[in-house]
Every structure is written in structure tokens, then in C-alpha cells.
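User: Last request for today: this protein with FE2/S2 (inorganic) cluster, please.
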Amino acid sequence: MKFVKNAWYVAAWADEVGSDNLFYRTILGDSILLFRQEDGVAVALRNRCPHRFVPLHLGKKIGNTVQCAYHGLVFNAQGKCSATPCGESIPRGAEVRSYPLVEKQKLLYIWMGDPEKADESKIPDFWYIEDDSWASVKGYIRGESNYQLMVDNILDLTHTNYLHADTLGSEALATVKTDIEDKPEHLRLKRWMPNQFQAPLSAASRGFAHRLADSWLDTTWYPPSNMVIEMGMTEPGGRREDGKVAFSLHLVTPETETSNHYFWSMSRDYCVEDSEMTRVIGHGFEKAFTVEDKPVLEHQQRAMGETSFWDMKPIFLAGDSGALRARRRIDAMLAEEQA
Ligand code: FES
Ligand SMILES: [Fe+2]
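Assistant: Here's the final one, the structure of the complex with FE2/S2 (inorganic) cluster:
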């Protein structure tokens, strides 16, 4: 499977991994076990016993260890076998791979590549997700499509005017010129939409339903597949500092070549106490992603089958510019890892 391995991917929302459960999820084609030690620190191990390959999540968590369900081998949080059922000596090679795992801002990030290269400081700062002066809503969706189709989707928002016309789309967004900031650590796509009608869900929640507003929408892509959209709105001619701002996270992790994990959230700095607004926004986003994006991407995946994106010989439109840069950057990362 062709994935960039030396990168931080979201393995789970931190609250998916409780103090007692053995959580598992397939990431970059490998089944990964996530659990918390007694001190609450989460760890990641390969979810496969080296004896007869039974998934460890079927076993039992005992303190800081996990016991295989089949013949009772016990593995510690570093993946080393620490006990055998009959007390026989521990055979050589009785260990499972452990992966660097970092809990940050309500997310668990995993590093599937060379552990020597795992640098925590490279994880993006999504501070608003845990800031109580912001209101946040979040979710998780599994999609049966290659993760790069999700990246294309978020980096080309011209689709919103067609696929999400009643919620996230607007004429302004479909036609706006995008300025691209291309830095080694990220790509940023900046869109400025002055004095226009804005997307229904965004406008309504900010008090701009059916009236003109100035709006900006800046998408930042952190290679290979973590993205955040900053969306702000002001009175026409207003100052950005006075705008109503939201950050939405779109964090995508490959499951297999043809499936992905999508962690999304929306954090806003206005009407923070309004829990009904949080519910409506959360529902609107979830519906857009689940009922509108997901089926289209899954059809897209089926239409592509096993053929690579470039071999499909797609045609290109102006709105593709950011997504194409991201694809070329991912290709370069893959080539570098495989060199
Ligand atoms: S398969 Fe795990 S102990 Fe035998
Ligand atoms: Fe969409």
C-alpha cells in the first residue's frame, strides 16, 4: 500500500479511548490497538499477537498490560511480552510493534513510520478545540474512499455550491479567486469574498441570513492529510478583528487504499453559550459530510476502481489548483520515503 508513513495521523479522538477499553482501528492498512495505561497515558501497539496472530483487542486489559485472549501471553505498553501463562520463559521475538502516540488537543496522533523521525513539535496547533471560550462540536465518519479524495474535496470548495447548496455552499465560494501560500510545512488557500451573500448555514448562525457580508475562508493543509478551514464574516467594510470566526478541522487518516477515517470539528467564537446553535451547526455539518460528500466520494472511488488518479487522466479546472499541489507534494513525499 502506498502511504506516506513519516507523518502524524489522527488515530482517534482522545475520548474514544477510555480508561478500560481496548480500542482498535485499521490505520495505513495495519490494525492498531490503542489503550490507556493506569496513569491515563495512551499507547499504540500492533493489534496482532505474535503467537498465532489473534487480534489483541479480543483480550483483556490488566493494569498497564494486555493479555491475549487465546493463550494468555501478556504484553506491556511498550509491546514486550511480560508474562506467559504457565510461567515458561519468554520466547525470543515475543513482542509487538509499538508506535509513537501523542495526545494533543483532544486528539490522539500516531506515527506509523520511522520512530526516530517522530517529532511532536510538527503536530499542528488546533488550540480552539479545547479552549472553553470557544464552542466546539466534533464527529467521526468512516468513508469507503481513498483518503486523497477527501483531501481533494476539502481543498476544492467549489463543490459546495452544488453538493451543499442549502448549507455550506454559495455562489461567492464557487467563483472566488484563491490565493495560494506554499510553504514547506503547509499550503494555505486564501479566499476573500467581500460584500456578497454567503453560505446559508454559516450566514444564518452569524446573523447574516439573506444579507450581504464580507467573508474570508482560508484552508490550511498540513501534509499529507490534516486540514483546517478558518471562516470569518463581518459587516461589509468591517474589520476582521470584529468578525465572527470559526475553525473547522478536517483530519483524514487512510484506513486502506480505498477507505479513510475522517475526524471533523467546528469551533466558533460567537454565541458560545448557545447550545441549540451548537446542535444545529453540528447536525448541519454531519449531514453535509455524511449524506452529501460521503456517497459522492464512495461512488467516485468505485468509478476509479484500482486505477491511480493520474492514470485516470482527469481534466482540470481552476478550482483544482490547491488540490493538485497537495497531490504533487504527497507524490514527492512518497518518492522520498521510497528512495
Ligand atoms: S495467539 Fe496470542 S497467546 Fe496465542
Ligand atoms: Fe463537501
